[in-house]
Amino acid sequence: MGGAVSAGEDNDDLIDNLKEAYYIRSDLVERAFRAIDRADYYLDEYRDNAYKDLAWRHGNIHLSAPCIYSEVMEALDLHPGLSFLNLGSGTGYLSTMVGLILGKVFLVL
């Protein structure tokens, strides 16, 4: 998985390619992906790789391939009101997209 789906120019190209390859199948997951630009989770000097369907690691920073995140989000059957705990959440890219779908989140300390 990863690498063969997209070498898009921007976030919309990435999502269009993931949809065309049937990684993104639901409108809810598509809207979450379109709302969050993957390049915002990259260091500036590596942003030219943000729209490729590849995993990326730099030191302690890690992003899985977008096709992996889309498969996870589709498989979880996400909808408002559910809870979500992402252990080892890395950059927060996946957690941010899931949070958009789940809606209000309350943090209890």
Walkthrough of the structure:
The chain is mainly alpha-helical. The chain has a domain at 11-78. Helix content is 36%, strand content 6%. It has 4 helices and 2 strands; from the N terminus they run ααββαα. The protein has helices at residues 11-20, 27-35, 66-75, 93-102, and strands spanning 56-58, 61-63. A hairpin with a 2-residue loop joins strand 1 (56-58) and strand 2 (61-63). The longest helix has 10 residues, at 11-20. The N and C termini lie far apart (37 Å).
Q: Tell me about the biggest sheet?
A: 2 strands, antiparallel
Give, in spatial order, the strands making up the sheet with the most strands.
1-2
Number of helices: 4
Radius of gyration, taken over Cα atoms and rounded to an integer in Å: 14 Å
Number of extended strands: 2
- Globally, the shape reads globular
Beta-strand level of the residues, as a percent range? 5-15%
Give the gist of this structure.
This protein has helices at 11-20, 27-35, 66-75, 93-102, and strands at 56-58, 61-63. With 109 residues, it is mainly alpha-helical.
Features:
109 residues; protein-L-isoaspartate (D-aspartate) O-methyltransferase activity; two-stranded antiparallel ribbon; 2 strands; single chain; mainly alpha; SAM-dependent_MTases_sf
Topology:
Layout (H helix, E strand, L loop, with lengths): L10 H10 L6 H9 L20 E3 L2 E3 L2 H10 L17 H10 L7
Antiparallel strand pairs: 1-2
Helix pairs in contact: 2-4
